[in-house]
Structure formats: C-alpha cells, structure tokens
C-alpha cells in the first residue's frame, strides 16, 4: 500500500463524433438531460429503459422510477430528443440479484442497500454487456458522478460537483473493466442547472419529482419484510449482563443503533440495538457507547485501482447520507479489508457498504461485516 497521493486534475474527455452510446433512461430529468446532451455532442444515442416491474406489479411499487408510466415518459423524451428507444426486460435478473438478496440479508440480521446491488449487478454489468451486443462503445447514465481520466489514461470515478447529489457511494461495486465504457454527462453539473437545461429543451420531465423510496417496496420496509420472513418470538437481552429486558417478533425488524420501538420492560431506560443474532433469535441492546465501532471489517471487496496503490490512510463512508471519516488500512486483499477509524463511529450496520475514497476519488468498497462479540451467557 502506498502513502496518499495528491489527486490528478480532471482531464477533458474526448467527444468522438459518431460513437454509439446506450443511454439508460429511467423517465426522470437526469437521464433525459443525459440523452439530450449526448445527442448534442454528436454521439449516436440509443435510449433504453430496463424493465424491472413484474406483470403483477403491486400498488405503490415502481411508481416514481422504472414504472410503466416512467417508460412512457422516457419514450416520449426519446422522441423529443430524436433518438430510438427500447424497453429491455430485466425482470428475472432484478428478482435474482436485488429482491432475493434483499430479503436474505434481513433474514440474517443485516441491513442491505439494494441500490448498490442494482448498480453493481444489473446496470453496470448486465447493461454494459447488452451495450456491447448492440455495438455501443459506451453506456451513459444520469448519475451525479465525474468521469476522470488520469495521467496514465485510466478512467476514474470522482464525486459529482453537486455535493448534495453525489452518487459515487452506490458505484463502488462497478466492475473495473467497465469503467472506460461508462459516461456521466451531468456529473459536472448541479441539479438546478440540469433542470434548466431540461426546461430550455422543452423536455417533459423538466419538473418531475425525484424518487426517494426503494422502488419495489410498497410503504414501509418493515411491512414488506414481515410479508416475506415469518415472525418468530424471541428475547431482547442486555449486552452487559445478559438480562432479559424485552421480547420481539424477529431480528429482521431491527437495525444497529435503533432506540425507538424496542418495547422494553423498563421503558424509562434509553437503549440502542447493539447486536443481532438470528441464530438464537436474540436482539442485544446496550448503552450508546456499546454501539461505537473503532473500525470495521468488510467482505466482497471491489477495487477501482490496483490493490498495491491503495493508500494506507484514506477516507471511508459507511452510510450514504453521512460524511466520510479518516481511517487507516489494517489489511486489504482481494476478498476484503479491515480499517481502523480515526474517531469511533456510531452503529456501523452490517450489510451496508463501506466505500473508500482518496479525496474526491472513488477507490472501491465492500460489505460491512458484524463484530465478533463476546456475549453474556
């Protein structure tokens, strides 16, 4: 591992006239503007939307993105821009790579992030393969990510220029060999400017609201999980003493750090979930300090640089909406890594992503593993 190096200056990428690009269109404003910008830059653009919703689509699922209505809007935008549009069937892959693992993780006491899986296994794996089949050199999306070419000509992913919209956190699992074939035309813009461009071009999605929820989950995640994972009554125990302090209906309904809705016998005490043990169907609770992690271990690692170039000190982001923190690399290999935080972090949830950065540069990431705790008998 090398010492941290100063990040290279972003280089202007070439705009080869006539190159064919498959533009992923979701029916939202970001992908709409992406298609329009690529067309203006001289690319041969093919618009495509990945169909994820099943034939028996439930009410309140796939409504804001990747829905039949969104497909109609994406097709209309493609007509406005003047590019062909195709609806690609990825229902089976979505169920296999996204919905199934989502429920399996909850059943094992973990907190998954399906958007990471969707980008890793479907959008930047399956879709890149489809693009090659269609003779496209590139896949383009509306992610707020910067595509940078370093002094060696290697493609890197950097944080988008709009800090409120940066989406590099979700792309750590992108196959490294796919990086040169991915374009992010709005990555160097802020969201208001994207909407301005859409309005200037008269795109019908210019004022469309953004999607926020998990697309395949109707209502609350807990209700969706309850439909698919049987309830099983178990005990809530105090981590310091082993004392039984409450009962629950399944570890799948809890996440690390949670302090509300625990239903403890002594309701005046403030307790946080500090450990989930599906094997014994036990929820362990404790003080705030019991939820502090001094570091983490991650599995299923993916690196966007040579492992030998991974700096010994870097930044790690353990949730999408939290700031990255400084950390020291204890171990890193092809299977995973171990980090020590500069400052202890609260409730680092197993199953979530630990995403590695050197300044704005995305280095890779992995899936957070649980602590090995010594539990009271």
From TrEMBL:
Broadest EC class assigned to this enzyme: transferase
Subcellular localization, as worded in the UniProt entry: Cytoplasm
Main localization of the protein described in the UniProt heading: cytoplasm
Region (Interaction with tRNA): 165-167, 319-320
All residue ranges annotated as the tRNA-specific 2-thiouridylase MnmA-like C-terminal domain in the record: 294-368
Keywords: ATP-binding, Cytoplasm, Disulfide bond, Nucleotide-binding, RNA-binding, Transferase, tRNA processing, tRNA-binding
Keyword Ribosomal protein: no
Chain positions recorded as ATP binding sites: 24-31, 50, 142
Domain tRNA-specific 2-thiouridylase MnmA-like central intervals: 222-287
Cross-referenced Pfam families: tRNA_Me_trans, tRNA_Me_trans_C, tRNA_Me_trans_M
Site description Interaction with tRNA, residues in chain: 143, 352
Keyword RNA-binding: yes
Origin: domain of life: Bacteria
Catalytic machinery residues: 118 (nucleophile), 215 (cysteine persulfide intermediate)
Reactions performed catalytically: S-sulfanyl-L-cysteinyl-[protein] + uridine(34) in tRNA + AH2 + ATP = 2-thiouridine(34) in tRNA + L-cysteinyl-[protein] + A + AMP + diphosphate + H(+)
Entry's EC annotation: 2.8.1.13
Disulphide bridges, residue numbers: 118-215
Family (UniProt): Belongs to the MnmA/TRMU family.
Its biological purpose: Catalyzes the 2-thiolation of uridine at the wobble position (U34) of tRNA, leading to the formation of s(2)U34.
HAMAP family: tRNA_thiouridyl_MnmA
NCBIfam families in the record: PRK00143.1, trmU
Listed name of the protein: tRNA-specific 2-thiouridylase MnmA
Gene: mnmA
């Amino acid at each position: 591992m090398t010492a941290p190096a100063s990040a290279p200056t972003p280089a202007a990428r070439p705009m080869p006239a006539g190159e064919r690009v498959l533009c992923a269109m979701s029916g939202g404003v970001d992908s709409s503007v992406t298609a329009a910008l690529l067309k203006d830059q001289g690319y041969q653009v093919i618009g495509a939307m990945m169909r994820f919703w099943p034939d028996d689509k439930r009410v309140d699922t796939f409504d804001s993105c990747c829905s039949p209505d969104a497909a109609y809007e994406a097709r209309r935008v493609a007509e406005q821009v003047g590019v062909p549009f195709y609806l690609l069937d990825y229902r089976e892959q979505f169920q296999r790579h996204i919905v199934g693992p989502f429920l399996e993780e909850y059943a094992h006491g973990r907190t998954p992030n399906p958007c990471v899986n969707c980008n890793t296994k479907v959008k930047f794996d399956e879709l890149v393969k489809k693009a090659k089949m269609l003779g496209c050199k590139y896949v383009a999306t509306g992610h707020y990510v910067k595509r940078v070419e370093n002094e060696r000509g290697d493609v890197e992913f950097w944080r988008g220029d709009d800090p409120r919209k940066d989406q590099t956190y979700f792309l750590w699992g992108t196959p490294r060999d796919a990086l040169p074939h991915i374009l992010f035309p709005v990555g160097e813009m802020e969201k208001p400017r994207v909407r301005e461009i859409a309005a200037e071009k008269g795109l019908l999605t210019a004022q469309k609201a953004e999607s926020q929820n998990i697309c395949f989950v109707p209502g609350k995640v807990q209700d969706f999980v309850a439909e698919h994972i049987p309830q099983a009554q178990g005990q809530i125990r105090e981590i310091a003493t082993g004392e039984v302090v409450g009962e629950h209906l399944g570890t799948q309904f809890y996440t690390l750090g949670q302090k509300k809705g625990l239903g403890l016998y002594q309701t005046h005490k403030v307790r946080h979930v500090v450990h989930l043990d599906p094997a014994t169907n036990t929820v362990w609770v404790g003080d705030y300090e019991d939820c502090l992690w001094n570091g983490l271990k991650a599995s299923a690692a993916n690196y966007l640089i040579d492992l030998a170039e991974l700096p010994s000190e870097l930044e790690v982001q353990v949730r999408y909406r939290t700031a990255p923190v400084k950390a020291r690399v204890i171990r890193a290999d092809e299977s995973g890594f171990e980090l020590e935080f500069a400052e202890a972090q609260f409730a680092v949830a197993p199953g979530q992503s630990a995403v590695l950065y050197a300044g704005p540069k995305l280095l890779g990431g992995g899936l957070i593993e649980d602590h090995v705790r010594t539990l009271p008998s």
